[in-house]
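Class prep. Write one:
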Amino acid sequence: QDKEEKDLLATISSVASNNTQRGILSYANKPKMMPGSAHGSKLVFSATKSTKAKTSIRYVETSVDKILDAPCVEQDFNINILDWGENNIIAVALANQIFLWNAETSAINELCSLEENTKVTSIKWIDDCNISFGDSRNRMHVWDASEQQSLRKMRGHAARVSSIAVGQGQVPWLLTCGSKSGEIHNYDVRKPNPFLSKFNVHTEEVSGLSWSPDGRLLASGGIDNVVGLWSNDIGTSFNEPMHKLEEHQAGVKAVQWCPWKPQLLATGGGAACKKMIIWNGNSGQKVLDVDTENQVSGIHWNERLREIVTCHGYPNNVLRLWKYPKFSHMIDFEGHDGRILCSSQSPCGKYVCSLGEDETLRLWKVFFSEETETKANRTGGSRSQTATALSMRF
């Protein structure tokens, strides 16, 4: 059984940066360290599993690892315009353009530009080569990113497509999309006529979607404060989910399943709620709720460390780390000057990137444990201890 983290031995160091020149996904300035920090930006925790067990040390690097400029980011909390793929490439949408940043090589490429006055409103990698995205003209797109070539466009939504989830388990070809109309559409991207079915319970925008790791359940979060739990019977259209969860007092954007307990779901509420709720997806019963004291825009689990991080908007604009299963608050990652709009986790599980209203994309060593890491680990490129100040722009 996990114990609460204890013995706070160092102070938190804030991250500050003043960007004087702006380039798309260019490196921003190196963050300044707060004076008087005895251990730099590391926070040290010790944890013991029993009185006889050897004490292990967990170093938490709270300073930002990298900062990239993201000018013209859409100031809209309900869309999902950031995704870190299994290919270790971060895709981010800025207005009508999509850019790809390779975390291993730091290479930047523009994937595409949509028509003038059209905005990308959601984005999701399907696999290492193919990427999907929705736009403000109610369309879904599938592109071959390696060839920078459009494969297909799918129409049928009555409003912009603001959230996307890719099938898990036995259905990796499944694309599930939520729109501002409240409808959820399922597509088989292998077929000439890809539309499969429609799920309909939300009365407002669907701002969060996530398939469980075993592919059995879909979670949907809406601006109507509702969480829907759906079975994987994707060949049938439904107007009612398996479970309709209405505990949140604000819109729900953050929905994320536990990777080691696939029936466990975490959801996060907006500014009028501020709660993270843990659910049993099979029964629809609430397991517990946690007051995060902030608007929740993202949730990410880490199986190896048994921790969870929540990403936040108002009032603090931080990433907040919690210890599972007691959900004791460990530490905050500070630096964004404005709401965190979107976030995504690295394929190795150790890093989280966050996209903010302050027009920066920040990479954090949230789940990095120095006692077990080696330089050879695949961590999204060669990482420095603090944010790197380089000049690289289009």
About this structure: The radius of gyration is 20 Å. The chain has no helices and 30 strands. Residues 1-22, 30-40, 46-53, 374-394 have pLDDT under 50 and may be disordered.
